[in-house]
């Protein structure tokens, strides 16, 4: 690692300013999502608590998400380069694990089970 890179990666990028266009876009997108969730749930009169609770919870998580995105933007991305290979390997292991441990749920099936059902309809338990 070069001296410049090591000195840059050891500190938080405080000199960078927040991109106001991006921040306003994120806030507008979050508000639009909360309004859409409110309009989709307000007609559900059987559970009035859902009408009030769901938009509030969604707004809370939108706010938390924007704050986390801002904090992550302060971190120099070159510090995370070391973690790319372990994250990639973990992702591949997770995909392989789903293949072996996965189950049929709500009509969705693993690739081998659906191929088996498609070609062996007469004797298939599907």
Short description:
This protein has helices at about 5-10, 20-40, 50-75, 85-100, 110-120. With about 130 residues, the protein is an all-alpha fold.
Report what the structure shows.
There is one protein chain. This protein has 126 residues and is mainly α. The protein folds into two domains: 3-88, no CATH class; 97-126, no CATH class. It contains five helices and no strands. The chain has helices at 3-9, 20-41, 48-73, 84-101, 111-119. Helix 2 (20-41) packs antiparallel against helix 3. The chain starts with a helix and ends in a 7-residue tail after the last helix. The mean pLDDT is 75.
Order of helices and strands: HHHHH
Helix tally equals 5
Low-pLDDT sequence parts: none
The overall pLDDT, averaged over residues, is 75
Query: How many domains, as an integer?
Result: 2
Supply Rg: 23 Å
Judged by helices, strands and strand pairing, the structural class is mainly alpha
Assign an overall shape. Answer: flat
Helicity, in percent? Answer: 55-70%
The overall strand count is 0
Determine the strand fraction and express it as a percent band: under 5%
Alpha-carbon distance between the termini? 57 Å
Strand count, sense and closure of the main sheet? Answer: none
Name a few traits of the molecule.
65% helix, 2 domains, 5 helices, flat, 126 residues, mainly alpha
Give the helices and strands, then pairings.
Blueprint: H1 3-9, H2 20-41, H3 48-73, H4 84-101, H5 111-119
Helix pairs in contact: 2-3
